[in-house]
Amino acid sequence: MDIEESAQLKDQLRDIVLNTKVPLVLKNYSVDWECFEGSLLEWCTSFDEYNAKKTAVFESMEIMDGATPQWERKRKKTEMTMQQFLKNYSGNNAMHWSAFQYKRAFDLPDQCLKGIDFESFGFSKHDRDFSLWLGSKGANTPCHYDTYGVNIVVQVYGSKSWLLFPPETPFETTRIPYEESSVYCLENFYAPQPDKLTYYEKFQYYAHHCVLNAGDVLIVPRHWWHYVEAVETSLSVNYWVPLKEDINLALDELLVKHVVESFVKGEDERVKTYLLNPNQLDELGHTPTDLFNLFKHALDRSADINCTLWHEDYLSKADTAKLISEISLNIRALNVMSKEDYMLLLSNNSKRHVVVESKEDNAINPTLEVLINSICAPDNIARVKLEFYRRIHMQKSVN
């Protein structure tokens, strides 16, 4: 392929990423990233060699703990080297899983990231804003959607199961645990309660599924729900393509932040740990003025037409489908799962539903949890923002 053909392919792929309305899988897509030329063991050995802290902090969770989604607040922290991780979790009989996941590039040794670049997808200016996900069999993220961006996921080693649902799926949303930019649902796809499988049947009409193997790439459109689980020890790299719409959505997230932090203020650690994801605990301490200044900054930025972010939705559905069919890549759109496959997946997962005594029971009053989730429901937050814009516009008209 000559330079001109290569540039055209990148442009086509970028257009597809920014305009697809359904998840896409690219099979055996070569990214040629130098750091992953060898085996997973070789990459882990290199990580241990260049990691200044010598050990890495992994999170772990018992396989048979599925009374609720496996929220991050329920996991234990363990320090070990990458090579120790591979040794301890090389088999499939472990009673718990372990993961070193959602690690941003700027927190990792540069030598272990050589060559990682999303230019082949048409996005050269990513400023190393990508993340690595390493986990043993069973490592998972509860079902959620990402507030920002279009997600490009490159499966480097091993394989992962992805269960995806479109934005309109009627899930019961929750902002508890609160994590900025992640909206969770209460549905437990890791281990659904066996006697409630009929409740989950209604989601089959929306469910899409794939198993990503090494060398595969998944494109997740904006606001698609996804439940992800490692089928075996695996490593993947993802990049959220920043969109113009993200600036507007940042206002929604800051409104939620206002609400949640107001409920957390003055509470004991048990309540804080229940309401907030661990990575949010370090961000507490904002005054109301601090929070307003963050909101005002996002508001000012939303009016900046010079922001270097990507537009989306500039191609019609028909033009996008035509482009996908014509591009010289092994790419396919995911289809809705059959009822048989969907229920078989949930039935197998339900075998992990074991009710265990939890230290977090009664951490907060259940009615308070309902109140927070009612206020922070995405549709309600969007209405507050629209009302804010209406009043701001009226204020400017009067002045």
Automatic annotation (TrEMBL):
Coiled coil: none annotated. Residues 97-256 form the JmjC domain. One of its GO terms (cellular component) is cytoplasm. It is found in: Cytoplasm. InterPro entries: Cupin_8, JmjC_dom. PROSITE patterns: JMJC. It comes from the Eukaryota. Keywords: Cytoplasm. May play a role in cellular stress response. This is CG43320. It comes from Drosophila busckii. The lineage of its organism: Eukaryota, Metazoa, Ecdysozoa, Arthropoda, Hexapoda.
